[in-house]
Design goal:
- The chain is of the alpha+beta class.
- 37% of the residues lie in helices and 15% in strands.
- It has a domain of 53 residues: Pemi-like Protein 1, Chain: D (Ribbon).
- It starts with 17 loop residues before the first helix and ends with a helix.
């Protein structure tokens, strides 16, 4: 396991050490998934594998667009 210490700026930014970026293929513009696991922060480069693992996590929830349409219809009836 590679471990290095870095500092957080006043804007909440920090540098991922170059050795880690190189070993994970992180380049400028790479999207990073940030997950909190208890007291740890886990960073993962967004890859097809990560997209496949998380696909459908939010499925089945209420439809915001349907709720907005219902709300607008109700508003028209009041006028």
């Amino acid at each position: 396991m590679l471990r290095q210490i870095t500092s957080v700026s006043t804007k909440g930014q920090f540098v991922i050490p170059s050795e880690m970026r190189a070993s994970l293929g992180i380049k400028p513009g790479t999207r990073i998934c940030v997950t909190q696991q208890g007291s740890k922060i886990v960073l993962e480069p967004v890859s097809e594998e990560l997209v496949d693992r998380t696909r459908g996590m939010l499925a089945g929830g209420p439809s915001l667009s349907k709720a907005l349409l219902r709300e607008r219809r109700r508003g028209k009836d009041r006028w």
